[in-house]
Amino acid sequence: MYRLLKTDGRAKRGELQTVHGTIQTPVFMNVGTVAAIKGAVSTMDLKEIGTQVELSNTYHLHVRTGDKLIKEMGGLHKFMNWDRPILTDSGGFQVFSLAGLRKIKEEGVTFQSHIDGRKIFMGPEESMQIQSNLGSTIAMAFDECAPAKAERDYVEKSVARTTRWLARCKKEMQRLNSLPDTVNPNQLLFGINQGAVYADIRIDHAKRISELDLPGYAVGGLAVGETHEEMYHVLDETVPYLPQDKPTYLMGVGTPANILEAVDRGIDFFDCVYPSRNGRHGHVYTKFGKINLFNAQYEKDDRPIEEGCQCPVCKNYTRAYVRHLLKAKEMLGMRFCVLHNLYFYNHLMEDIRGAIEEGRYSAFKKERLEMLKTYDKK
């Protein structure tokens, strides 16, 4: 159940009530691909840094360890000891980006596992079954993520098939939720809008999937090769045709600037590997832009990563010490950077929610975007 609490222009401030707790939006979902955040970050850490939603990956958990084993262990929440919401993506993106050799048919996709090369078939029903075994709070529909620059004819056919797949996902999800041994009988299904950079295909698809009256909708197939301007244009055109009284999720995006811009266009769910991936390479986020702690200028820097930051790293350690750990290839350095970055993202969203509530989002966005460029100008 989603409640729209406040709008400020097209920016939305809402809350989604789920069986695993209420999600305050706009929200950034912390990406834990294989039921863990890369960088030695535990679920206890996630609570300490203000994480609302953890995101795990259907494809990766299916090919390694296996969703059936996780179901036997009581589902993903119990398996990883996390009692807040979890969103699982459908596996579609990985099937199309990682699998290499694959064959798409109306029934679904046959592909080879990137781990052991075995043949796997996944279609809408299989994706729903895997996600039902995992017992996530929110399951994503199985779709094809066509390349951003794909030919129009290809995109039209792909989107039509994704629409047919969505109807099958909805039907299968209803069936699975009614079974007596289902891990989470209250699992929610989000549909995904596709259409590459073709605004008219996107709009038509948004209208069609909205008719299915699902609990939420995502905009997929962006941040996969198009420019930021093209992405913002697609959102400008498409989001008004998705239900305003449902959560709207921009998949796989993005930088702090991307998030600030997308909130302004009506998006209220985000996920991205940037904070953890960049953290593992010593790149840390601040209000004034991103810094690389490997740089020599931080060797004797006794300040925290970000002045005033209340994350467990900034409250206790200096840039010089974190840099030393990174240079010494000590895992603790990587862990500290990931923790700080996730805290930064989670609390950026908190500030965004506050600005929308106070009706000053436009000014807030402008000020934050300007601040983010500070280090670039030096």
Q: Roughly what is the average pLDDT, rounded to an integer?
A: 95
User: What's the β-strand tally?
Assistant: 16
Shape: globular
What Rg, in angstroms, do the CA atoms define? 20 Å
Regarding CATH, which class of the largest domain? Answer: Alpha Beta
How many helix segments? 15
> Cα distance, first to last residue?
47 Å
Unreliable sequence segments: none
- The CATH superfamily label of the largest domain reads Queuine tRNA-ribosyltransferase-like
Report the β-strand fraction as a percent range: 15-25%
Which structural class best describes the helix and strand composition?
Answer: alpha/beta
The CATH architecture designation of the largest domain is Alpha-Beta Barrel
* Spatial strand sequence of the major β-sheet: 4-5-6-10-11-12-13-14
CATH topology of the largest domain: TIM Barrel
Number of folding domains?
A: 2
Family: Belongs to the queuine tRNA-ribosyltransferase family.
GO molecular function: glycosyltransferase activity
Protein name: Queuine tRNA-ribosyltransferase
Region (RNA binding): 252-258
